[in-house]
Amino acid sequence: MDSNKMVRELKSRLTREDRVLTYDRKKDKIRIESKLTGKGITLSIGGVVSKWHNEKEKAIDEIVYYVEEGLRAMEDNVQLTDHEKKIFPVIRSSSFPKEAEEGVPFLIDDHTAETKIYYAYDMGTTYRLIDKKIIEKEGWKPERIREIALFNVRSLSTMVKEDHVAGNIFYFLNTNDGYDASRILNKGFLNEMEKKISGTMVVAVPHQDVLIIADVRNNRGYDVMAQMAMSFFASGRVPITALSFLYENGELEPIFILGKNK
């Protein structure tokens, strides 16, 4: 699979009368834009091809789903008032765009050196990031959105799966509701997990659909955690960070794990 073949495949699956598809050969990017809203999604073909070599058709299926749902979210109206239960925080990489493509800034808060907090309006199978235009249209203050979002994330399930590797324990939260990584903002949950841990608590949010918590009891545990985080980061539809975090005294501190060393 090369860029030309991938572009043809995506065009065959995403072309519709109400859309405009353009391919920038120099930048190796394709843009799918809605004629109705003038808004669209731009994909890096190189990244899609890379995912295809690892996941084959599953990679294309996921990209098509992401584009279809993303364009639908852009076309639907967002109404915050009387729909407070649909507002959630989402974690993104510090390098994630700070504004929508039309130049409207998103509501963003600092989190760690590697991550930031955005806010989303849930639309069922997808969500739309809340921006300044939405806030002004609704007449809301940003503080209200923050409070509601953090309250709602605490209501989400925190059931984890447990795995033991080389004398270390790893806990995985993976509900695929779009807010798995957001659970890292649930301090009550993190503090409860900390009580269960006898070694060092290490946390990772490699992509939006997984939260990993490790009870690291030996050097091998750090190595395993680093490999897991990198693997999940490479395969996620919305990657966040391959770095892990120490959780101590209610604070997250990014750590670089080299080999088997802390």
Your description of this structure?
The protein has 262 residues and is an alpha+beta fold. It is 34% helix and 27% strand. The chain is built from 7 helices and 13 strands. It has a 6-stranded antiparallel β-sheet with strand order 8-9-11-10-12-13, sandwiched between helices. Strands 4, 5, 6 and 7 form a 4-stranded antiparallel β-sheet that branches. The chain has a 3-stranded antiparallel β-sheet with strand order 1-2-3. It is globular, with a radius of gyration of 20 Å. The mean pLDDT is 90.
Q: What can be said about the biggest beta sheet?
A: 6 strands, antiparallel
Instruction: Kindly report the average pLDDT value.
Output: 90
**Helix and strand composition category:** alpha+beta
Compressed to H and E, one letter per element, the order equals HEEEHHEEEEHHEEHEEHEE
Number of strands: 13
What is the CA-CA span between the terminal residues?
39 Å
What radius of gyration results from the CA coordinates? 20 Å
Summarize, please.
With 262 residues, the chain is α+β, with helices and mostly antiparallel strands. Helices cover 34% and strands 27% of the residues.
Describe this protein with a few key phrases.
single chain, 4-stranded antiparallel β-sheet, 13 strands, alpha+beta, 262 residues
Secondary-structure topology with pairs:
Elements lengths: L2 H12 L4 E6 L4 E6 L5 E5 H11 L1 H19 L11 E7 L14 E3 L4 E8 L4 E3 L2 H7 L3 H12 L7 E5 L2 E6 L13 H10 L3 E5 L6 E6 L2 H17 L8 E5 L2 E5 L7
Antiparallel strand pairs: 1-2, 2-3, 4-6, 5-6, 6-7, 8-9, 9-11, 10-11, 10-12, 12-13
